[in-house]
Amino acid sequence: MRTTARLVPGLTRAAFAARGFHRAAVITDWQAIVGDALAGRCVPERLSADGVLTIRASGSVALALQHLEPQMLERIAGYFGFRAVTRLRFRQAPLPQPKATERPRESPPSPSNLAAVLADIEDDALRKALLRLGAEVAAKD
C-alpha cells in the first residue's frame, strides 16, 4: 500500500495549477514562509505565470502589508532558494473564518471536591458563598 502523503501531490497538482500554484508549497507552507504573525492576517490566492502572487487580506491589513512587500518577497525567495515570486498584489477581502470547534463542557467539581478546590481562598464569606453556589449547580445537574 502506498501512503496517502505520496498520493496527494499527484491528486492536487491539477487543482493547484489551475489557480496558478505550480508549486503548491506557497499555499501549504505559507505559515513557515512568512511567519505566524503574517500568516494569520493574509492568505495566498493565486500565483501568475509571471511571478505575481495575489494575497487576500482585510482592508487595513492589506495596506500595512504593502509596506512589508520587500521583506515578504525576501522571505519567499529565501524559502525557495530563488525568486519564485517577483511581485505581490493585494486583494482586500475578508479572510475565511476558521470553523469553531465545540469544546466539551467541563463538569463542575463534585460537592465533596469543591471544598478542597476552594481551600486556598482566604476570605471566609467568599469561600462559603462559592460552596453554596457549587452545591446549587451540582443539584441542578
Question: Main attributes?
Answer:
single chain, 141 residues, GMP Synthetase, Chain A, domain 3, alpha+beta, 2 domains
Question: What does this molecule look like?
Answer:
- The protein has 141 residues and is an alpha+beta fold.
- The protein has two domains: 9-92, GMP Synthetase, Chain A, domain 3 (2-Layer Sandwich); 111-140, no CATH class.
- It contains eight helices and three strands, in the order H-H-H-H-E-E-H-H-E-H-H.
- The protein has helices spanning 4-18, 25-28, 30-34, 36-39, 59-67, 69-80, 111-117, 124-140, and strands spanning 42-47, 52-57, 87-92.
- A hairpin with a 4-residue loop joins strand 1 and strand 2.
- The relative contact order is 0.11.
Q: Kindly estimate the percentage of residues that lie in beta strands according to DSSP.
A: 5-15%
- Domain count: 2
Radius of gyration: 26 Å
* Overall SS class: alpha+beta
Helix content: 40-55%
- Main sheet characteristics: 3 strands, mixed
